[in-house]
Here is the input.
Amino acid sequence: MKKWVKILLVTFIGFIIAVAGVLGFSYYKYWGRFDDDKEKYPHYIGYIDQENAQLNNTHELCGDKHIAYTYNGAAFRAFTGTKKTFRNNIFSSYQNRDYSDSGYLNFRFLVNCEGQAGWFEVIKMNLDLEETELNKAMVDQLLILTSNQKHWNKLNYKGTPLNYYMYVSYRIENGEITEILP
Here is the structure.
C-alpha cells in the first residue's frame, strides 16, 4: 500500500475514535448517568458517622480532615509490613475465651496521618450475612487488637500526609478466627 493511503487511513480511524469518544461522553453526561439521590444517600461511600463510631474521641484527623481511599480502603499499602504480618499478629494475640459465636465481624474505620486507627463502625453478622449480635467480649478484644497502632502505616501522597479509610472483616466459627479479609 502506498504511504499516503496508510496515513489517510490512520487519520480517518483516529478521527472516528475521537468522534465516538466525544459522543459517548456527551451521552453519559447528559442522558445516561443516574441522578444522585442526596436525600436517600447524603454521604459519600466510606462515610463513618462520627457520633456513633467507637474510639472516635481517641485521635484527631490531620490537616483538612480529608479522607483518602474511601471507595476501596487503602488495603495492602495500609498494613505495617504485610497483610501476613497483620494476620500473624492477630492470630498470635487473639484468645478464644470459650466463645461459641459464628459469623462475620466487620470493622470499617479511619486511620489518621499518624497511623492511629479510630472512628470504628462495627457490623456483626451471622454466617448467612444477616445482622446479629456477637459476644461483646470477643468483639471488644478484636476491636482492641485491630486498632493497635503497630498495624497501620502512615500514608502520604506527594509528601502530604493522608487520613485514610480502611476495613477489616473477620470470619469466626465457634469463637475461632478462620479468615481475615481483605
About this structure: Residues 3-32 form the longest helix (30 residues). The radius of gyration is 23 Å.
